[in-house]
Amino acid sequence: MLKSLKQVDWKSIFSPSSLIYTMVGVAFAAIALEAFMLPNKFLDGGVTGIAILVNLGFGINLNLLLILINLPFLIMAWRKIGKTFAIQSGFSIFLLVLVLHYMEVPTVTEDKVLIALFGGFLMGTGIGLIIRGGGLIDGFEVITEYVQKNSPLSASEITIFLNSLIMLSAAFVFGIEPAMYSILTYFTAIKTTDYVVEGFEEYTALTIISKEHEKVKELIVKEFNKAISVYKGERGYLPETFHIKHPCDIIMTVVTRLEVHRIKLAIQKIDPKAFFYVQTIKEVKGGIIKKVGKKHD
């Protein structure tokens, strides 16, 4: 055990940025629970949703439930994902329990739509910040990743299936209306989490096949200050003229979704028949992915 603890990246766990993200994220999540969700029997997904369901249905202490239900997932994270991640997640969960125990927040509004939207927004913001800090407050993310590696289902399909069971249970225990509002809360939370984790400037891979490939390359690099990757390929193979083909450079560049339209319009002025396809990408590292100035290091 001592040897395992020596392998933990303690500097990462207790770095200023990680601590700030975690503490602010926990504060947001606690406000969402105390001021919006718990007084109105609205659920989030995952372990938090299960804990709220059991708490409201059977009166068992919510803080105790958050610890007990998350514990098996933290053990799984320790063994299957990483020790640093498991400790950081355990710290986030402990901090949330501590804040919920000592903090009291009055109910802000009685409007159920506002409660669902703002409760989901605050919860999603809190979860996203905690993830950016390197941890989590919901053990379902652990089992989703583990099951995904041993299942043909995607992570999103597994998450939807597991959370659907929670919402069906909520409908059975509390009625259809609270369950419907819980779904709205959950949807708002996951979309907000995506924006907080990935940012509003979601990156997109734009691939271009054009007979004017040299001009297109020059346009993207010199006019839009974007790096490109070039593949050697062939264009042609149309149904009417399948035997006709031409060698060409297939150009790929990474841009934000806000830039895609402008670049496509500029390329179409060079070659109105240029072929595009666009792919959303989750993460970009290295290279030049943002606009750069005239000087480079």
UniProtKB/TrEMBL annotation:
<feature type="domain" description="DUF2179">
    <location>
        <begin position="230"/>
        <end position="286"/>
    </location>
</feature>
<feature type="transmembrane region" description="Helical">
    <location>
        <begin position="85"/>
        <end position="103"/>
    </location>
</feature>
<protein>
    <submittedName>
        <fullName>Uncharacterized membrane-anchored protein YitT, contains DUF161 and DUF2179 domains</fullName>
    </submittedName>
</protein>
<dbReference type="GO" id="GO:0005886">
    <property type="term" value="C:plasma membrane"/>
</dbReference>
<dbReference type="InterPro" id="IPR019264">
    <property type="entry name" value="DUF2179"/>
</dbReference>
<dbReference type="InterPro" id="IPR003740">
    <property type="entry name" value="YitT"/>
</dbReference>
<keyword id="KW-1133">Transmembrane helix</keyword>
<dbReference type="InterPro" id="IPR051461">
    <property type="entry name" value="UPF0750_membrane"/>
</dbReference>
<dbReference type="Pfam" id="PF02588">
    <property type="entry name" value="YitT_membrane"/>
</dbReference>
<feature type="transmembrane region" description="Helical">
    <location>
        <begin position="158"/>
        <end position="176"/>
    </location>
</feature>
<keyword id="KW-0472">Membrane</keyword>
<feature type="transmembrane region" description="Helical">
    <location>
        <begin position="20"/>
        <end position="38"/>
    </location>
</feature>
<keyword id="KW-0812">Transmembrane</keyword>
<dbReference type="InterPro" id="IPR015867">
    <property type="entry name" value="N-reg_PII/ATP_PRibTrfase_C"/>
</dbReference>
<keyword id="KW-1003">Cell membrane</keyword>
<feature type="transmembrane region" description="Helical">
    <location>
        <begin position="115"/>
        <end position="137"/>
    </location>
</feature>
<dbReference type="Pfam" id="PF10035">
    <property type="entry name" value="DUF2179"/>
</dbReference>
<feature type="transmembrane region" description="Helical">
    <location>
        <begin position="50"/>
        <end position="73"/>
    </location>
</feature>
